[in-house]
Write a structure and sequence with these properties.
heterodimer, A: alpha/beta, Rossmann fold, 7% strand, B: alpha+beta, SH3 type barrels, five-stranded antiparallel sheet, 16% helix
C-alpha cells in the first residue's frame, strides 16, 4: 500500500487502446517482462524493469482504457493500482500517459482523469509522424505548459525519443505532483466536498478515508457498481445522499453523468486551443480509402471471408507438419526412455504418463503460435476492430458481439487458442459466454474420431444425384450439431447465469497501419510461453492421473493365461534364422498376444473397472463397457479415444495413421458383445458415439485453460458438467431414435 | 432527429445523450458530448453498426445505441 522503496521506483503506464502502449512498454523495458494475473479478475498484470541513470524503475503496464471510470472488477484494477488500493502492488511513484498525437482530443480524456490522482505524471506523445503526415502540427512546449507536466515526443515503433522519455521519467519522479485544477464546475465540486464530509463522519470507526477521485466517481457512476463496492459496509443512508446530490446537480444544469464528459472535453478544448493546427479540410488519408474498401458491402465482405478462410486454414492445416514433428520428437524421446529403463511401473509412468503428457502440451503450440501470429497482425494493423464491426450484427442475434467471432472461429481448429483469444472481449459476461461455448465448436482433435467411425460404419452412398455423399453429410452434421448447440447454450446463458444489459459496441475503429514485426513476434511467443508455463504443468498432471488409473493395480496374474503361448512363440522365433519366411507371421502373432495382454491389463485397471461399473449407464447409448472405458480414458484429449479403442479391442497400440486405422476399422466392425455373437457396433451406435464426442468436454487442456482464463475452477467444472450432460442426452436420443428407424 | 437517422456523408451536431446506463456513459466518454459535430461515414455490410467521424477519429456505434443520441442536422 505504501510507496515503493527509494531505490526501486514504480511507474504505471496508462493510455487508450491503439496508441502503441505495448510497443512503448517493450521499448522501455526490453525483454525484462513478467506477465501474471491480478487476483480474482481476468486482467493481465504485466511488469517490466528498466535501469536509467542508476535509477531502477519497475514499469507496470495497465490495461488500455479510454476512461478511468470503473464499472466492473476488471476496470477497477487500474484505479486501485493508481490509488495504491491494490493489496499486492505498491502505489506508483509516477504515471506515464501515452497518447496518440493524431487523435489528441479523445486521448487526453483519460489524461485529465489521471491528473486528478495527485501523482507526478509524464506524457509520451506517440505517433507524431502519423500526425505530421495528416498535416496536424502540435506546439509541444505550450502543450506541456498548459497541462503542467513534461511532454516528450516519441515514435515507439522506431524507438525514437525513448531515451529522452527515460530522462523525463527519472527527473520527474523526484518532483512533487503539481496541484491540478479540477475541470468540474463549482456546484459539482461543492457536492464532492459535502459527500467527502459525510463519508468521513460515517467512517469514524477507523475506516480509511476515500480518495477524492473515488468520491467524485461515486457521484458520477450511475451504473451503481462503485456504490456496491466502495459503500459495501457503509451507512445505507449514503445511497440516498448520493441520489439527492445528483438531483441537485441536474437542477443546477450539471446533470450526472454528462457533466463529466462535458467538463473534461471542455478542459481539453482549452488545453489544445491554439496548440493543435489541423488542415482546414479533412484530408482523405490512405487509411480512409482502405477503410472504404474493407468495410464495403461487397468487397469488404469478400475480403473478410477470404481472410478468415486463410486464418482458419492456417491454424487447421499449417500446424499439422509442426505437430507431426513434435509427435515424432516425443515418440523418439519415449523410445529412448523405453530402451534405457527397466520394465515396470516407473518406465510406464515416464513413457506413457510424463512424456505422453508433455507431448500433449507441446502439440498445442503450433496452433497457438499460428493463430496468435494472425491475431497480432490483424490487431496491430487495425483490422481486428473491423472484423468485429463486420460480424457484430450476426453475433448480436445470439446475444454476443462481433468481438466473439474470431475466438469462436479459431475454436474450430482448437478451442485452446480460441479461448485464449477471448481476452480482447472487454465485457466479462460476453467473454465468459464465448469461453463456455468455444469447446462446442468441432475442433481438429475430433476429426480422427469422426473419420474412424464414419469410414467404418457409414456407407458410401450418394445423395441428391451425385452431389452429396452420405459420409460427407454425416461429417457436416457433426459440425452443425456443435454450432447449433453453441447457439442455444449462448442464448440460454445470456438469459440466465450471465444475464445483464447488452454491453455497448461504442468502439474506436483505429487507422490502418503497417504491423510491427517485433510486436507481432513478441505477442505470438508470449502467448505460447504463457500457455506452457501456466497450463502446461496441470495438463501433464492430468495425463499422469489418467495414466495411473489405466495402469494400476497392474496385477501380473493378468498375464498368466497368455504366458505359455507367448513363451512358446518367443522360443520358436529365437530358433528361426533371421531370413526365415515364417518370422513375419510369428511376429504378428506375438504382437497380437501383446495386444491381448495390454487389453487384459486395461480391463483390470481402475479405469477398466470403472468402465465395467458404468456399463448400465452407457448401455442406453448402445455402448458396451469397452466404449465407455475408452470415452473416460479420452479425458486428457479426445483423439486418445482412437488409441484406447485399439488397445481395448485387443489390437495393441493403434496410430491414427491410415494403414493401421484400417485394422482398427475391421476390429470395430467385428467386435461383439462379450459372450454373444451380436455385433457391438451398428450405425446408431457409431452415430451416438460421434454425437457424444461432438458435444463432450473430453479435453483436459481446454478445461485447464478455462481455469486459467477465468481465474476460477467453477467455470471449467461447469463446462465439463454441462457439456457431458448435453453429450449424454444427445447420444442417448441419437441411439434410441436410430434404433427405432433402422 | 436521431443519430441513427443520418445519411452517409451527412454531418450533424449532438444535442443530448439520453439515459445514464453504461451505453450512455460510454458514448459520452468516447467524445459524443452535446455540441460536438459528427459525420456518418458508412455502415457495416449487414447494415449495422454505423461508422462515424467524431473529434478526428472513427467511432463505431450500433443503431440501437445511436438511437439515444439526439442531433440537429447542419
Amino acid at each position: 500500500m505504501s510507496h515503493s522503496t527509494e531505490n526501486n521506483l514504480c511507474v504505471a503506464l496508462i493510455g487508450n487502446p491503439n496508441t502503441g502502449k505495448s510497443t512503448l512498454f517493450s521499448a522501455l523495458a526490453g525483454v525484462r517482462q513478467r506477465v501474471g494475473n491480478y487476483p480474482g479478475v481476468t486482467v493481465e498484470r504485466k511488469t517490466g524493469q528498466l535501469t536509467h541513470r542508476a535509477r531502477q524503475l519497475t514499469l507496470i503496464d495497465l490495461p488500455g482504457t479510454y476512461s478511468l471510470a470503473p464499472r466492473s472488477p476488471d476496470e477497477m484494477v487500474a484505479v486501485d493500482v493508481l490509488l495504491g488500493r491494490q493489496n499486492d502492488a505498491p502505489r506508483p511513484d509516477l504515471v506515464l500517459c501515452i497518447v496518440d498525437a493524431s487523435n489528441l482530443q479523445r486521448n487526453l480524456y483519460v489524461v485529465s482523469q489521471v491528473l486528478e490522482l495527485g501523482l507526478p505524471t509524464v506524457l509520451a506523445l506517440n505517433m507524431v509522424d502519423i500526425a505530421a503526415s495528416r498535416g496536424i502540427t502540435i506546439d509541444v512546449e505550450r502543450l506541456s505548459r498548459n497541462l503542467g507536466i513534461p511532454v516528450v515526443e516519441v515514435q515507439a515503433n522506431r524507438r525514437q525519443g525513448v531515451d529522452r522519455l527515460k530522462d523525463a521519467l527519472v527527473e520527474q519522479i523526484d518532483r512533487p505532483a503539481r496541484e491540478h485544477v479540477s475541470p468540474f464546475p463549482a456546484e459539482f465540486q461543492n457536492e464532492v466536498a459535502a459527500l467527502t464530509r459525510r463519508l468521513e463522519t460515517a467512517s469514524s470507526n477507523g475506516q480509511a478515508s476515500l480518495p477524492r477521485y473515488l468520491v467524485e466517481r461515486l457521484l458520477l457512476d450511475t451504473t451503481g457498481y462503485l456504490e456496491d463496492v466502495v459503500l459495501e459496509h457503509a451507512d445505507p443512508g449514503l445511497h440516498g445522499a448520493i441520489a439527492e446530490a445528483r438531483t441537485r446537480l441536474a437542477a443546477a444544469g450539471s446533470p450526472v453523468p454528462a457533466v463529466e464528459a462535458m467538463a473534461r472535453y471542455g478542459w481539453i478544448g482549452q488545453v489544445l486551443d491554439g496548440i493543435v493546427v489541423r488542415p482546414r479540410e479533412r484530408r482523405i488519408t490512405l487509411s480512409d480509402r482502405m477503410d472504404r474498401v474493407l468495410t464495403h458491402r461487397l468487397w469488404g465482405t469478400l475480403i473478410f471471408v477470404l481472410l478468415m478462410v486463410v486464418v482458419f486454414q492456417a491454424v487447421f492445416s499449417w500446424a499439422a507438419p509442426a505437430q507431426d514433428l513434435i509427435d515424432a520428437g516425443v515418440a523418439h524421446v519415449a523410445q529412448f526412455a523405453e530402451e534405457h529403463m527397466a520394465e515396470g511401473a516407473l518406465r510406464s509412468l515416464v513413457v506413457d504418463g510424463l512424456i505422453g503428457g508433455v507431448g500433449g502440451v507441446l502439440a498445442f503450440l503450433p496452433q497457438i503460435f499460428i493463430l496468435f501470429f494472425f491475431i497480432a497482425v490483424l490487431e496491430d494493423c487495425g483490422y481486428m476492430a473491423r472484423a468485429a464491426y463486420l460480424m457484430d450484427k450476426l453475433m448480436v442475434r445470439v446475444g454476443l458481439s462481433g468481438k466473439s467471432f474470431i475466438p469462436l472461429l479459431s475454436s474450430f481448429a482448437c478451442a485452446i487458442p480460441g479461448i485464449m483469444a477471448t481476452r480482447t472481449i472487454e465485457n466479462r459476461r460476453d467473454r465468459l459466454t464465448t469461453i463456455l461455448i468455444a469447446p462446442l465448436m468441432s475442433c481438429s482433435a475430433r476429426l480422427p474420431v469422426y473419420a474412424l467411425l464414419i469410414t467404418a460404419f457409414i456407407p458410401e452412398r450418394k445423395l441428391v444425384g451425385d452431389l452429396l455423399n452420405l459420409q460427407g453429410v454425416t461429417l457436416a452434421a457433426m459440425y452443425l450439431i456443435g454450432i447449433v448447440t453453441a447457439t442455444i447454450v449462448a442464448w440460454v446463458l445470456k438469459k440466465s447465469l450471465l444475464r445483464g444489459p447488452t454491453p455497448p459496441f461504442v468502439m474506436e475503429l483505429p487507422s490502418y497501419k503497417m504491423p510491427g514485426p517485433s510486436i507481432v513476434l513478441h505477442r505470438m511467443f508470449e502467448r505460447g510461453w504463457s500457455f506452457i508455463r501456466r497450463a502446461g504443468t496441470l495438463i501433464v498432471a492430468v495425463a499422469v492421473v489418467v495414466w495411473a488409473s489405466l495402469y494400476y493395480p497392474h496385477d501380473p496374474a493378468v498375464e498368466a493365461p497368455y504366458a505359455e503361448q507367448k513363451v512358446a512363440l518367443e522360443t520358436r522365433l529365437a530358433e528361426l534364422p533371421e531370413s526365415a519366411a515364417e518370422r513375419g507371421d510369428l511376429e504378428r502373432e506375438l504382437a497380437e498376444i501383446d495386444g491381448r495382454i495390454a487389453g487384459a491389463y486395461q480391463e483390470q485397471s481402475i479405469l477398466g473397472r470403472i468402465g465395467h461399473a458404468i456399463e448400465p449407464a452407457v448401455r442406453p447409448l448402445g455402448w458396451d463397457w469397452r466404449i465407455g472405458c475408452a470415452a473416460i480414458a479420452s479425458f486428457p484429449a479426445r483423439e486418445v479415444v482412437v488409441a484406447t479403442l485399439g488397445i481395448i479391442y485387443n489390437l495393441g497400440e493403434v496410430d491414427v495413421d491410415d494403414t493401421q486405422a484400417a485394422g482398427l476399422n475391421s476390429a470395430l466392425q467385428q467386435a461383439t458383445w462379450e459372450g454373444t455373437e451380436e455385433k457391438v457396433f451398428n450405425i446408431p451406435v457409431a452415430l451416438s458415439l460421434m454425437v457424444f464426442f461432438a458435444l463432450c468436454a473430453q479435453c483436459a487442456a481446454t478445461l485447464v485453460v478455462i481455469k486459467r482464463e477465468t481465474g476460477s475452477w467453477w467455470w471449467p467444472v461447469f463446462t465439463f458438467v454441462y457439456m457431458t450432460g448435453l453429450a449424454y442426452v444427445a447420444a442417448l436420443v441419437t441411439y434410441q431414435v436410430g434404433m427405432l428407424i433402422s | 432527429m436521431r443519430l441513427a437517422e443520418l445519411h452517409v456523408g451527412q454531418r450533424a451536431r449532438v444535442v443530448t445523450i439520453e439515459g445514464s446506463d453504461e451505453i450512455s456513459l460510454r458514448l459520452l466518454e468516447m467524445g459524443l458530448t452535446p455540441g460536438v459535430d459528427v459525420e456518418l461515414l458508412g455502415t457495416a455490410p449487414l447494415g449495422d453498426p454505423l461508422e462515424f467521424e467524431v473529434r478526428g477519429y472513427h467511432l463505431s456505434v450500433r443503431k440501437s445505441e445511436a438511437q439515444r443520441v439526439e442531433i440537429q442536422s447542419l
